[in-house]
Design a protein that fits this description.
The chain is built from two helices and nine strands. It has helices at about 115-125, 130-140, and strands at about 1-10, 15-20, 30-35, 35-40, 45-50, 65-70, 80-85, 90-95, 100-105. The protein is of the alpha+beta class.
Length: about 140
């Protein structure tokens, strides 16, 4: 069971529900609660929570039993400002809009691949430009 914070269309107040459905933050849904109440106004899923907020006792939190997506979440903005490839040296450098750069170097035993270079730059960026991202990948290979 996951707890979700939702905001009804046109209303600034947020409400907590629980659900077994796979709802996406940022998406807008028509919902039904407790298999009986069909809401006329759609809701936006604000966030997913592992536990309920303290404002309501557990027994007062309703359950979203049905949900039909009206609008999906907005796409994230492209964080890449520029990319440079050097096939001879086997390097990919990504310049991000936040001003930082991330560089990955192709392993001697691998074949240079632009797509893989960009993907690894994302991984490296996610781990604060530290090399530990490769340990996580290596574990599953």
């Amino acid at each position: 069971m996951v707890y979700v914070t939702v905001r009804f269309n046109g209303c600034g107040k947020e409400y907590t529900y629980k659900t077994n459905l796979n709802l996406l933050p940022g998406a807008i849904y028509n919902i039904e609660a407790d298999n009986e109440t069909q809401y006329k106004s759609p809701v936006e899923v604000v966030k997913l929570n592992m536990r309920p907020s303290s404002e309501f006792p557990e027994d007062r939190i309703r359950t979203i039993t049905k949900a039909e997506m009206v609008n999906g979440p907005k796409r994230p903005k492209n964080p890449i400002k520029n990319v440079w490839f050097n096939e001879n040296k086997g390097t990919t450098v990504v310049q991000w809009y936040d001003g930082s750069k991330t560089k990955v170097i192709c392993n001697k035993n691998d074949t240079f691949d632009k797509e893989k270079g960009i993907a690894l730059c994302f991984m490296k960026k996610m781990y604060s430009n530290r090399g530990c991202y490769y340990e996580f990948i290596k574990k599953w290979l």
